[in-house]
Amino acid sequence: MVSSQEAAIMEREYQKWFSPNLNRYMEMLVFGREGVPVIFFPTRAAHFYDLENWRIIDAMREKITSGEVQVFCVDSIDEESFYSNKPPRERILRHLQYERYILNEVIPFVKQRNKEKQLAVAGCSLGGYHAVNIGLKNPKIFNKIVGMSARYDLTKPLPFFADLFDGYFDENIYFNMPNHFVPRISDKKLLKQLRNLDITLAIGQDDSFLPDNKRLSDSLNAIGVPHNLFIWEEEAHRPRYWREMVKLYL
Predict the structure, then answer these.
(1) Which residues is 69 bridged to in the sheet?
(2) Is residue 40 exposed (0-12), middle (13-18) or buried (19+ Cβ within 10 Å)?
(3) Quick one: which of 139, 175, 184 has its CA closest to 155?
(4) Residues in CB range of 64: below 8 A, 6 or more apart
(5) Longest dimension (CA), the chain
(6) DSSP readout, the chain?
(7) Would you state the pLDDT for residue 230?
(8) What pLDDT, on a 0 to 100 scale, did the predictor assign at position 8?
(9) What is the mean pLDDT of each successive set of 10 residues along the chain, which is 250 residues long?
(10) Residue 160: its pLDDT value, please?
(11) Under a CB-based contact definition with an 8 Å cutoff, are residues 155 and 173 in contact?
(12) pLDDT on residue 6
């Protein structure tokens, strides 16, 4: 644990390296020096610094400075994948490259810097999708998943939100949409791993993504995976709500 004098300062570190998986430079901010590491995804088309700018990191200051958590704010490439003008097949393939960047570059970096055995993943809005998707697909790697104000089927058009694949569907899309693949999980070993996860879904009662969250919650219940679904008042899809959520769930 950090000393009381050190606790007054929240350590902040900037990182940048060339990603061979993405063939481009990627940036990151790290907050804190020890504690349970949290890989935190930004919202749609946002960047690694936005969580700090929106004071979401500051809302976690006490947990960070006390050494309870260490937060790794990763960057997004959503504008090169889901929100690009590429053909739908290329959009999901670019997303898979991003996933390999997280699994093969970010996580080894985290493990090198932090010797804690636990690893959490979190995100807001589309970042929540990223967190829940990668967490449920890799239950041996993660211990805790927190998805806030997220959508778990990007193929389903909603008011003000399009099908991000324009009607196209393939195996890669299927295995990256939790509301598609979760209901059909039957492997006993995988189910056992999933049942050991600490899973939290948080969504506003007026959020367009509420049905998506209820569907995922129902699917997890159906396969016997414990989790929490918290439904907040109003839409709750803004930084001022996420600042409160991280205090409760991370």
Answers:
(1) 36
(2) buried
(3) 175
(4) 10, 31, 32, 35, 57, 70, 71
(5) 56
(6) ---HHHHTS--EEEEEEEETTTTEEEEEEEE-SSSEEEEEE-STT--TTHHHHTTHHHHTHHHHHTTSEEEEEE---GGGTTTSSS-HHHHHHHHHHHHHHIIIIIHHHHHHH---S--EEEEETHHHHHHHHHHHH-TTT-SEEEEES--S-TTS-BTTB--TTTT---HHHHTT-HHHHGGG---HHHHHHHHTSEEEEEEETT-TTHHHHHHHHHHHHHTT---EEEEESS---SHHHHHHHHHHH-
(7) 98
(8) 58
(9) 57 98 98 97 94 97 96 97 97 98 98 96 98 98 98 93 95 98 97 98 97 98 98 97 98
(10) 84
(11) yes
(12) 47
67: its two tokens: 């050494």
Class of domain 4-249: alpha beta
Q: Give me the amino acid identity at 200.
A: T
User: What is the pLDDT, as a whole number, of residue 202?
Assistant: 98
Residue type at position 147? G
- The amino acid at residue 76 is S
CA distance 236 to 219: 23
